[in-house]
Amino acid sequence: MPKYADLRTKIHDIYEKKTSISEESSKEAILACIDLLDRGEIRVASKESGIWKTHSWIKEAILLYFQIMPMQKMEAGVLSFFDKIPLKNWSGEEGVRVVPHAVVRKGAFVNQGVICMPSYINIGAFVDSGTMVDTWVTVGSCAQIGKNVHLSGGVGIGGVLEPLQAGPVIVEDHAFIGSRCILVEGALIEEGAVLGAGVTITGTTRVIDVTKEDEVVYRGRVPKYSVVIPGNSIKEFPSGDYAIPSALIIGTRDEKTDRKVSLNAVLREI
Q: What's the domain range around 99?
């Protein structure tokens, strides 16, 4: 992000204590970074030449933001909260459908055409246009969710702020994440993939393609357009052989799959 090179240097100097966080210019730089995140003008990770890159200086800004923000009472109608990070306020001009009680923290970006059912989106997250964030979904800090994704009911997307160099969970465009799936530790779900209910993917989960004569194993990554279900692998331990949770690629996405995972058009109307 060459456009923000000066801001990046300023944030890094504050984080490394080369510049005092108590200086007014330091606070202004931190708040400017959070505002840019909130508007989607910068993001914690971006795809460059086909490879996802994590921008650790933006994570530094988020951690610094926690330091400079005071605890304060926040009110939403009859509800009250006590926290450091304010919630997004919606005017209706954003083009986002936000159902009570969907909660989005400041510093998270939610693009036009997103539907937020009762759910929670944490600071640093990026949710792109046309995505459905279904009931009781959690999108953790810094998670990157692509266009036209469906996060089904109860999906848990893990967050990551530290270590700074750790990649966030990434779900690319047009993916379908089935009910109660868990994605953590920098899991990468590539474009158009379909995860059946209850699949768990961590950074080290064995994702096994069982459609060929010989298995093909991926670690923490689901390839494009794969259809995945929960599975197990047998691992030897000193005390015996035990089943370890894995994920099985049982095919690739086709028109029949698309019909099963498509959203009713009326849900996308604002």
A: 95-261
Are 49 and 162 within one domain? Answer: no
Residues found in the chain: 270
Q: What is the mean pLDDT of the chain?
A: 93
The answer to whether residues 99 and 202 belong to one domain is yes
Q: Tell me how many degrees the CA angle 202-49-63 measures, rounded to the nearest 5.
A: 55
Under DSSP, is residue 48 helix (H, G, I), strand (E, B) or coil?
strand
Q: What pLDDT score was predicted for residue 130?
A: 96
3-state SS record for 74-109: EEECCEEEEECCCECCCCCCCCCEECCCCEEECCCE
Summarised one tens digit per residue, pLDDT across range 55-68 is 999 999 999 999 99
Whole-number Å distance between alpha carbons of 110 and 130? 10
| CA angle in degrees (0–180, nearest 5) for 45-50-53 | 25
Read off the tokens for 68. 């400079």
Percent of the chain at pLDDT > 90 equals 86
∠ CA 80-86-90, rounded to 5°:
90
- Is the same domain home to 230 and 190? yes
Burial class of residue 166 in the structure, from the number of CB atoms within 10 Å of its CB (0-12 exposed, 13-18 middle, 19+ buried): middle
